[in-house]
Amino acid sequence: MPGENLTRDEARERARLLSVDAYDVALDLRSAVGADTGPGPRTFRSTTTVRFRCAEPGAASFADLVAPEVVAVRLNGRELDPTAVFDGSRIALEGLAGENELVVDARCAYSRTGEGLHRFVDPEDGEVYLYTQYEPADARRVFANFEQPDLKAPFTFSVTAPGSWTVLSNGTAAGAEPSGDGDGAATTRFTPTLPISTYITAVVAGPYHYVSDRYRRTRPDGSVLEIPLGALCRKGLAKHFDADDIFTITKQGLDFFHDHFDYPYPFGKYDQAFVPEYNIGAMENPGCVTFREEFVFRGKVTQASYEQRATVILHEMAHMWFGDLVTMEWWDDLWLKESFADFMGAFALVGSTRFTDGWITFANRRKSWAYRADQLPSTHPVTADIRDLEDAKLNFDGITYAKGASVLKQLVAYAGQDAFLEGARRYFKRHAYGNTRLADLLSVLTETSGRDMAEWSRAWLETAGVNVLTPQAVYDAEGHITELAVLQEAGADSAVPDDAAPPRGTLRPHRVAVGLYRKDGPRGERPGALVRYARAEVDVDGPRTVVTGLTGAERPDLILVNDEDLTYAKVRFDEVSLDTLRERLGELSDPLARALCWSALWNLTRDGLMPARDYLALVERFAGAESDIGVLQMVQAWALSALHHYSAPERRTAAGSRIAESALRELRLAEPGSGHQLAWARFFSQVASEDTELRMLRGLLDGSARIDGLDVDQELRWMFLASLAAQGEAEEKAIAAELSRDDTASGRRHQVRLLAARPSAAVKAEAWAAVVDSDRLSNALVEATIAGFDQENQGELLAPYAPRYFEAIERVWQERSIEIAMAIVRGLFPATRGDATTLAAADAWLTGHPEAPSALRRLVLEARDDLARTLRGQECDARAAG
C-alpha cells in the first residue's frame, strides 16, 4: 500500500490542470489460461492510449498505474524511459502540452484479492473466470489512467481472449475478430462509452453461462426504448441460476425508475454478472453490473434472501442515475450515490416488486447497521471528510449507506415525495455526465420544495451521532392523557457508565408519528392483540416537544415513538410500555410496529440498559410468533450476539441451553417446508452445544433423525457440519467426505472454513499462519479461514493470539493489499477471548502507534469500542443475574 495512496489535494490539483478527452484500452488476456510460467505474479498485457488536455502547457502531472512492469511509455510521440518515470504506482509526466496523447504498454498482474482484474480457477472443471472490481481506485491495476472520479471520459475497450469465452464490458460488443496468432483467440472491440469515471469501467471474461432477454418501453411520443438484458454466472452454477426472476426484478425496476426519473437509462445494454470470490455485494458498472455469486442460491433459502437480492439489483440500478450519470466530485460526497441508491433500492422494491413489506426490512436490518456505525468512535457526518483513498475505502460503511438512506427517507417526509423526485429529475438533467457536490443537490431541492435545504443539511448531513427519543406521559385520575411529550437526547453513547461520554451530534428536527396501543383491539382484530387506537404526527424540535394531538386519549399499554419509522433515531420506552412488551410483544398486530419494537429492544441491550438475559427471554417467548421472515432472521442474529457477547460469562452455558431448547421447539412447531422452518433449523445449528443437540444434528445429517418437511440440502448439510466441527464432533475425515459430495468452488470454501473451525491448537496455528504469515490464499479463502478460526466457544484456544495480533497488524497493513489487510485486521481482532486484558492491549497499541495509518487505527479503534461495549453489556447481565 505505501505509495499507492492519493490525497484529495493531489486530486484537486490534477483536476485543475487536466481534462480527459478519451481512453482506448487494449487488454490481452490469453495468459489467464494454462500453467504458471515461473516466479512472480501471472500477468497480462495492458496497452492504454489516453488523450487529454492541460490548462497550463509546460506543467507536470502524473498518471496512475499499479503494475509489475511498464514496457514502454510514449508522451506526445516522445519515448520515455519507464525506469525513470514509473515508480510502481505513478507515471511522472513532465512538460505537458495543451493537447496530449499518452501511450502506456504495461504488464499488469491478475488479482487473487478481488481488486483489479480477479482470476478464479473453478476447481470443479478447471475453467478460468475473470472479472474486474475497481472502487474506489483499482482500475489502475488494469490500465494506466487518471484515477479519480471527476476526470470522466469516454472509454473504448478491446479485449483479446480465448475465442470460446464470453467477453463483456460497459459498451456493446462491436464485433470479434481472430487474433491472427492461430491460437483460437479473438479480439472483441466494444463501442465507446459515454463519459464515465474510471472506477465504474468493467471487463468480464470467461466461459460464463449467459442468458439474454430484452426490456421494451413505449415512450410518450410513441417510439420504443429497447434495452438488451443479460444475466450470467459460472457454468457450474447454471443449474441453480434463476435468470427469469432476475429479469423480472430488472424490468420492474427499469419501469419504476423511468416513471419516476423522467430520464431514460443512458448506457445501452444492461448485463448483470454473478461472479466468484467477490469482495462486496455488487458494483454499479454501467452496462455491466457485477454481483457476488452467492446471490445464485444453491439450496433452499427464505423469501428474505430473494428480497435482499432484489433490493441489491435495484440499488445498483439506481446507481445508473445516482453515481454513474451524475458522479460525486470526490469521495467526500460518496453519499450522493450510495445513500441515494440505498434509499431508492428500498423505495423501488416496495413500489414495483412483490416485496411490498420492504420498509419493514429497511427499519429492522439497514437501520440497525446505521445505529451501530453511528455509535462508534469513528462515526462521521453523512458528508464526510475524506482526505485520501484509504479514508475512502473505509467510508463504505453504515453511515454512508444506511444512515444516509434513512436521512433521505426523512427528507422525503420533510420536503414531500413529489418535490424530492422533481429535484432528482432536475439534478439529472442539469448535471448529466458531470460531477457534483452537496450544494448542487441542495440547490435543486430548495427550488422544488421551497424549504431551506441548507438548514436541513446542517442538521442531518453535517453532524454525527444518533438522537434518542423517549415518550413522557402524564395522566389524570380517570386515566386519560393530560400531556404527552417526546424527549430528545443528543446521542451520547448510553452504554458508557453514568453517561460519562460527551454527547455527539446535535438535537435535530424530526417528523415522527406517535402511536398509542392497547391490549384489546376493536372488532375484527384477533382477540387480545395489541393494536393501535390513536396516532398523531408531530415535529420534534429541541429537548422536549409536546404532542398535542393525543391529549385526552385513554391510557395506553404501549407508546411507540417513531411509529411507521418516519425518522432516523433510537427509540426508548416508558416503564409501562416496556412491561407490556415483556409480556405481550408477540401480540403486537402490526408487523412494522413489531419490527420497530424488536429493534428498540436490541438497542437497549447493546447499550447496556437491558440485560442480555431479558432480551433472550423475549426471543424464547415471542420469536416463534414472528410472521415476517426477515425480522425473524434478524432477531435470531441479535440473539446470537446477545448470547455470545452480552451474556455474563458465568451464565452463558445455561443461557445457551435454554435458547437451544427454544430453537428446537420452534423448529418442530414450524410449518413443514416453510421459510420459518428453515430459519429455525439454521438457528438451532448455531446454538446447539449439548450432547443431545449435537446428536440431533448428526441424525439430520445421516438420516437417522427427521423433521417433517425439512429438506437437508447441501448448504444446510454444510451448516450442520460446521457446528459439529466447531464442537470437536467432526474431524478432517468427515469434512473430506462432505467435500466429496460437493466438490465445487462453494464446497471448497466450506471445507476450508470447517477445517479451521476445529478445536485444536495445531489447527489454529495452521490457520493463523495461512492468513497472517502467507499470501497464498485468495480473498475468498482468507475470508473462509478467518470465519473458521474465530469460534465463540474456543476462547482458551484463541487466547495466545491476542498479543500476536497486535504485533502483526502493522506489518500486515504494509505488506498486503488493503482489501486483505482490512479483512485480517477486522476478522482476527481478539474479541472472542475479549476481557479487560484485551481491552488494555488495544489501548496500549493505539497509544503506542500514533503514527500508524489512520485507516488502520480506525479499524482497531472500532473493534476496541465493540469489545468495551460487550464488556459493559456483560456487567449489566451479571448485575441482573445477581
Which value, in Å, is the CA radius of gyration?
28 Å
State the major sheet: 8 strands, mixed
Poorly predicted sequence stretches spanning 5 or more consecutive residues: 494-503
Give the CA-CA distance, first to last residue: 50 Å
Percent helix: 40-55%
Name the structural class: alpha+beta
Q: State which percent range the strand residues make up.
A: 15-25%
Mean pLDDT: 94
Extended strand count = 28
Number of helices: 28
Strand order of the largest sheet: 5-4-7-2-1-10-13-12
Based on CA inertia axes, which overall geometry fits?
globular
Explain what the structure shows.
- This protein is about 40% helix and about 20% strand.
- The protein has about 900 residues and is α+β, with helices and mostly antiparallel strands.
- The strands form 7 sheets. Strands 5-4-7-2-1-10-13-12 form an 8-stranded mixed sheet. A 5-stranded mixed sheet has the order 15-16-17-19-18, with helices on one face. A 4-stranded antiparallel sheet has the order 8-9-14-11, with no helix packed on it.
- Strand 16, helix 3 and strand 17 (about 270-275) form a beta-alpha-beta unit.
- Helix 25 (about 800-815) runs antiparallel to helix 26 (about 820-825).
- Residues about 495-505 have low confidence and may be disordered.
